[in-house]
Amino acid sequence: MVGPVDTNFHVVAPPSQRRRYPLDPLPGTAAEFAEDQSTTARECLDLMDSAGVAQAYLIASRFHGFDNSYCADSAAQHPTRFVAIANVDILAPDAPDRVDHWIGARGMHGVRFWGGGRGTASWIDDAALRPAWERVRAYGVPANAQTTTPEAFAATRRFLERFGDVPLTVNHLGHVPVAAGGGSPALAELLSLAEFPEVRVNFPVELAVAVTRGERQAREVLDALLARFGPRRLMWSAFYPSRQERPYAESVRLLREALAFLPPPDRDWILGGTARDLYPVLRR
Fold first, then answer.
1. Whether the bond into 241 is cis, omega within 30 of 0
2. Banded model confidence at residue 242, pLDDT cuts 50, 70, 90
3. Which of 154, 233, 157, 237 lies closest to 201, judged by CA?
């Protein structure tokens, strides 16, 4: 299958299915929930089809806590369109066993580690958490740490010095301030992680939208990412279904417009090739 891949969709069970898939928001996230964030896989597919998006990563919602059943079951119903990524509390004593359950037993495709609830992933290089990372390494699946911000980049570097062979995605551009342009210290730290070949960066469509508006700082950031990571290590997401300023199809159209200056092979890598490289099951 060819075409774009959105690397960050969340599914939340609708009220009619919550006896089987109850809500259990992660600590510190309950106030963020609104009923319009209940999104089924079918609704995700409708959005994707409206925009010509071929496939997507389904990431278990924080509103289901660390029970990834709804995400796993949703992705399994559409195996050619989705991969499923599990939330795991890396601070829990049984974190390695949770990786075994969701990857080994339930057949999910990747892991997003949380340090309990909300908070910067400064724990990423904690020696006590290495058994969980070792389990991910043994399975050979991709992972990311929620939330990696500039404050966690130093710890992320120390982690990569030990686990540089683990495919690690820095999500949402590492929350680097785009308005600071290409010369910000935070961006420089993010770019320095490019020396580790298994690091990839997921950037939000809003970066591309700013490029289409002619914002110099956004173009500087995009150019810097291309120069250091290259198109084969960059991915994107519109980060739906959280509240957005525009329809999904419009966001994807603007993404394509922002990347139009690139040679077609480079553009295709960012739009979908990198995402399929990270999860080869999407190439089947």
1. yes
2. low
3. 233
Q: Identify residue 99 by its one-letter amino acid code.
A: V
Q: Cis peptide leading into 156, omega within 30 of 0?
A: no
User: What is the spatial order of strands in the sheet that 234-237 belongs to?
Assistant: 5-11, 55-60, 82-89, 110-114, 143-146, 168-170, 199-204, 234-237
In angstroms, the CA 235 to CA 204 distance is 9
Beta bridge partners of 146: 114
Task: Kindly report the average pLDDT of the chain as a whole number.
Answer: 94
pLDDT in tens, 162-176: 999 999 999 999 999
What CATH number belongs to 5-283?
A: 3.20.20.140
Q: In percent, how much of the chain has pLDDT > 70? A: 99
- Whether 201 contacts 189, CB under 8 Å: no
